[in-house]
Every structure is written in C-alpha cells, then in structure tokens.
Amino acid sequence: MKLVNTADLKSVSVRIAGSSPAASINKIDINNKLIISIYFAYFYALNFIYKMFILSIILKVLLIAVPLLLAVAWFTLLERKIMAGIHRRRGPNVVGAWGLLQPLADGLKLFLKETILPSSANTVIFALAPILTFTLAIVGWTVIPFGEGMVLSDINLGILYLFAISSLGVYGIIMSGWASNSKYAFLGGLRSAAQMVSYEVSIGFIIMTVLLCVGSSNLSEIVMAQKSVWFMIPLFPMFIMFFISALAETNRHPFDLPEAEAELVAGYNVEYSGMGFALFFLGEYANMILMSCVTVILFMGGWLPPFDILPLNLIPGPIWFALKTLIFVSLFVWARAAYPRYRYDQLMRLGWKIFLPISLGWVLLTAGILISFNWLPVASAI
C-alpha cells in the first residue's frame, strides 16, 4: 500500500485554496452580466412588440374610422342629390364642382357655431348624450367584415355584439331628451325609446332565423354560409321585414317620429346646436350605413359575388360589399322621399301586431323545416 506524502497534500490544498475564490467570483460576475443582458434584451423586445401591437390596432381603427366619417359626410350630399332628382330639382350645386364640397362647408358651419347650453338643463348629461350616441355608432363597426379576413375583431358572437350596441343607442337619445329639460325634447326621447324597443324584438327574431340556418353567430361564417344561395331568397319575407325594421331602428322616414318637426319642433335634439347637433347627425347617418352593412351580411352574401363565375369573381370582395351597401343606403333615401310619415299608433301596430307574430312564426317554421329534413347545421359558436 502506497502512502501519500503529506507535503504533496498541503501543496495541492494551498493551490486550490489560493486559486478557487478569484475564479469563482469571475464566473459569477460573468453569469450575472449575461443574465442581466438577456433580461434587458427580453424586456426591450417585449416593449417593442407591445408598441407595434398597439400601433397596428390604432392603424386598423383609423382605417375604419376615417373612411367611415368621410362616407357619412358625403352620404349627406348623396341623400340631397337623390332627393333632388326624385323631387325634380337641382339640389346642392354651388360649393365646389357639382356641389361636391358641400359636406365640407356644412361641417365647417357646424364647427364654428356657438354651443349653447340651456340654463335649466343638466349640463353634464346634456354634453354626454351626443358623445355617447356618436361613440356607439362608431364602435359597432369593429366586427363588420368588409372582405375575407378584413375585419378588426372577428369574434364568434359578432351578431350579438351588434345587437347589444344597437340596443344601447337609445340611451343617448333618452339622455338628451331628459337633460334638455324641454317637453318637446323629452317627448321625442320617449318616442324613440318605445319605437326602438318595439322593433328590436322583431329584429331579434329575424336574426334568430338566420342563425338557425348558419349554426354560428360569427359574421364571417354567416357570409360564407351563403356561397350557394343568398339568404334573401329563401328568407325573403324576413329580408323585407328586417329592412323596414332597420328604418324604424334608425328613426328614418317613414318612422322618424322622434324627430317629427310638425309636432315636436325637432324632437330630442331641439336644444342642441353646433357640434352637439353634428354628433347626433353623424351618429344617425353612421347607423344607417351600419344597418345597411348588416343587411348585406345577413341576406345578400356580404362580399360574395352574385354568381361564382369568372368575370364576377375577379372583382375584389370589398368592392362587392360597398356596391351592395350603396344599394341599401339609396333605399333609405328613397323611402324618405317617397313615403309620408306614419302616425304613432300605426307605428306601434306595425311593430307589435304584424312584425312580431310573423317573425316569431317564421322562426318556428324555419326550425321545424330544418329539424324535419335533418338540415340543421352544427352549432359551432353560438
């Protein structure tokens, strides 16, 4: 058995004790610096990704909001031009070539007008009412698909989101009527509340009919379900009732009783001037375009062409969507120029005694047919 020299052990221990602390400290410093550099790089990368994400959302919102506001502005010119043609008169033709700059002149006039607050009004609610109305008219566009994949938020409950937003729109009108402390404005607000609630019931049953045929409340899936046939053909009575209910929901002729100038001076917005009136005006016209888009999505195939044949399917989907929406927007104007205003009892009778029973019966009929022939689609995301 070989003995180990104690001197060798001492020399080895001295070498280890002398070199180990410095080397370990250097290794720890290097590891700490590496960890800190990785942490900061990860932090800056996350910060950059977050900023780019926020920037992309802002750009998407601007890509929807700016064209929408421009469309609302020039829709007022289109309405005046169409009504002038129906009434056989010229319409706006002074500001700009063929009157094309008339919306800019109207907007500048409203912007420069003095905002008058009634002395007996509730100032806070009076100021919030037009802001709420305009905001609700804009946020509904977040789920509208303009083409395949061209949607800001493609949620599975898109149609229910739209229905909820349209239901909240009545609050801005009620707030304006109550806060004005005027009997005319208050009567206009009450009329609007009763009218919108009455026709939202039938709109809900009509939407249920479409959802039964699709099996999903995602707006993009509703469009893609109409590849073979548009729903306006098998559901033609519901299509007509939905458009008429959209007229009542947006307080347009012949159902503009909340703004009946012959009875209520100007309805719920009688005390507003300047930008307060402009926000109500923009909200009303944005809702008209929104309801036209919803009608196109539910019954006319959204961005799909009428026939999937070579000349037609070369046209981009957003162009088809815009052309179909323009048709319904023009029908809104045509109804204003062609029909007299309903009496209030006629309005309530049409909503509760005609549209409600027919829409409810059609839901039951559609469900019965789909179940009887085993055509009921699988509910993917209702």
Key descriptive features of the protein:
382 residues, mainly alpha, 2 domains
Q: Which spans have pLDDT < 50 for at least 5 consecutive residues?
A: 12-19
Structural class: mainly alpha
Count the domains: 2
Terminal-residue CA separation: 85 Å
Give a brief outline of the structure:
The protein is mostly helical and 382 residues long. The chain contains 12 helices and no strands.
Could you please describe the fold and organization of this structure?
The protein has 382 residues and is mainly alpha-helical. It folds into two domains: 18-100; 113-372, no CATH class. Helix content is 70%, strand content 0%. It has twelve helices and no strands. Helix 4 runs antiparallel to helix 5 (183-214) and helix 7 (236-249) packs antiparallel against helix 9. The protein is globular. It starts with 5 loop residues before the first helix and ends in a 10-residue tail after the last helix.
Topology (SSEs and partners):
Blueprint: H1 6-86, H2 102-112, H3 123-139, H4 158-179, H5 183-214, H6 219-224, H7 236-249, H8 261-264, H9 275-299, H10 310-313, H11 317-338, H12 344-372
